[in-house]
Structure formats: C-alpha cells, structure tokens
Please model this.
Amino acid sequence: MLQKRRAKLSAWQFLTLGYLVIILAGALLLTLPISSNSGEWTPFLDALFTATSATCVTGLVVVDTFLHWSLFGQLVVLVMIQVGGLGFMTILTLAMVLMGRSVGLYQRQLIMQSAGSLSLSGSVSLIMRILRGTLLIEGAGAVLLSIRFCQDFGLLTGLYYGVFHAVTAFCNAGFDLMGRYGAFSSLVPYADDPLVSFTIVGLIFLGGLGFLVWTDLIKCRFRFSRFALHTKVALIASFFLLLIPTLLFYLFEQDGLLAGLSIPQALMRSLFAAMTPRTAGFNTIDMAGMSNGSYLLTILLMFIGGNSGSTAGGIKITTFVVMAGTALAGARRSSLVMGGKQLDDGLVREAAATMSAYLMLVVTGCMVLAAAEPFDLTQITLEVVSAIATVGLTTGITTSLSSLSQVTLILLMFAGRLGVMTLAIAFGQRRNQPPLRRPTDKILIG
Model:
C-alpha cells in the first residue's frame, strides 16, 4: 500500500513533501527547552522560521543563533543546513547505499531533480561524488577557519566554530555564531582578517558553483576548451559577477562605509560584499548603512544568485545569462547562440518562466510586507529578495516583523529553495494532458 501511494507522487511532489517533513521535524525539535540557552520553550513560529531558514539555506533569523540556541539547538540547525544544502535526496541516497538497498528508476528521477542533473544515467555516482567533494571542501575550510578561531576561542570551541562556519558558508546558509561579540553581528568582527574573509569567500564561491560544474572540471582536467557549454557559461559569468560588483561596491562606498580604510581593507570588504549575495548571507559591513547604489546592486546580485545545481538560490546565473542573451538576440531578430551552438527554444521559455515567476513573488511579497510593516520600501525589497533568493542578508528588520510578514518570508524561503517552477509543477501538474493542438494567434509585444 505504501509503495502504491508513493508511486502516485511525482518527483516534484515527493521533493516538496520531503523538505516539508524536514522543516517541521526541525521546528518541533527547536521548540523544545533543550534547544534554547534559557531552558524554556521557544515559540513555534520562531522555531519554524529558523528551521525553514536553515533547511532552505537562507540565514534570515528572528533570534540570534549563538545567544538563543543551546549547543543542541545549534547542532539541529547545523544538520538542517547540511541536509538542505546537499538536498535531502542526497542524504537519502547515501542511507540507501549504506543499507545495501538498490536505487530504482523512481529514486534516480528524484536525484536528477534534486541535484540538478541533466540525465538519469550516473545519478548515484554523481551523488557519491557530491558527498566526497563536499566533505573535502568543507573539511579544508574548517581547518583554515579553525586556525583563527582556535586562537580566539580555544581548541574545542575553535574547532567547533571552524566546522560550523565552513558548513554554513559552503552551503550558502549565512548562519553564524558571532553573537558573542553582539547580537546579529555576523562576521563584522573579522572584516579585516584575510584568513577568515578569503576562506569564507572561497567556500561560498565553490558552494555556489554547482555540482555539475565540479564534475565537468575534474572530468576535463581543468582544460577550458573541453568544458561543457553549461560549465563555460557558469565560470565566465561567475567571474564577471564577482569582479564587476567588487569594483562597483568600492566606488559606491569609498566615501561611505569604506571611508578611512586602506585600499587593501576596502577591496577585501568590497569583495566580500560582492560575493555574499550569491547567496550566503554573511556580512562584514553595516547593511543598514549602505548607499542606495549598494542596496540596488545587492538586490540585483541576490536575485541572480548562484549556479544551477548548487547550494545557492536566486533565479540562477544561467537563467540570467539566457535572458540577457535572448534580449540581445531579439534586438537583432536572430536566434540565441552561445558557444557556437543555438540554444533550444524550450530552454529560453523555461528561463523566461522562471524569471517571471520570481518577479511576481517578489512583488507580491513586497506588497504584503509594505502593507503590514512601517519600514521603507528599500528595506522591505531587500528583505523579500533575500528570502526568496535564500540569501539571508538584512538591514536588521527581520526581528521586528509581524507574524504575517514572518509567515510570508517562510513561504518565500521555501519557494526559493525548492524552486518556483518545481513548486508550480508539484501543485499544478495535470497527469492526463489532452492531445490537443490549439489554434495560434498573435498579440502586440513591447
């Protein structure tokens, strides 16, 4: 009976249900007195918000992670971040392999959707490569971060801090334990520390690069000419989306947040500010004190996000590139060509649908928060985009939001992690499509 019921669920519905179960289980654990430093029950909405933010690797919080949660609570958050970052199907596949269970066609379809694979073949081996790569990168990051944190907090605490922040950075989650320096301080105390800043930036970049890109890099032995088109687009776009925003942040804030700093210090903070919207949520500058240009740039970077098949959120870099290329091709009245190959029209339609869906949710979320909250539109827009793009950056208004706004952000974070189109298919897919070809017509565009 259970097998029959499971078979009735599509891959998208199963993934959606899986993430819901993880979030609810985590929320229930976080409400327990053992999860809080005070030993008291945590309100369910606060626990649900934290569990959603952790599982959806966002980083928006209504309570400070260090000050509110006990070690047990922090570990619950860390596990949800790791599961959310890798995808619960990755963890489920690992469990099946360890138990000697075979991975069938249905599970392979789920893996393909969860990991962003382009084909069913090799899906299990892809999962194992993802796990090994994750362990290697997070382990290296933890060692580097522990060098500094052990100096500051002692051996055991330093090692724990190194592991915690390596996982949250690689998974693009943005949770931190720096509340000991002040509530919601993020990594501001380490703004001028090259070891911490560059390690975090490196982990964010690798986490947002995408599992398929890793595989292609290793398979082609880092020879650019042999890379797949997806890898080439991801690498080139990622480079320019890091270089150009770094320079823009430096220009926008040289007389503001960066005033009085040396050029190396200012460039390091600018680099961090350019990388963290992709979509990690850490910050080494005062988000509430940014200029309007920096706000707009941050919102744009958050909306774009990282690469497809990665731990990052947003509409994804490839979607942005396809839409930008489509606009240029449309102006020339030609087809979209990349790398000497014409892209399929279905891919362009999918990119357009994804961007349109995200824009509609952003506008809807902004309208809800604008009606419910007294904050200005810039703060609200950044908060909403931060939620749906699973970033975690905020100007500090998250803790002051009403229950309605918190629930709105919870829904946006969930939609952003699963993918707007995944949710649309999961809840709107019809099993039996009538084999009809309707007559065509035209309307004016532009």
Summary: Residues 1-7 have pLDDT under 50 and may be disordered. The longest helix spans residues 123-153. The chain has 19 helices and two strands.
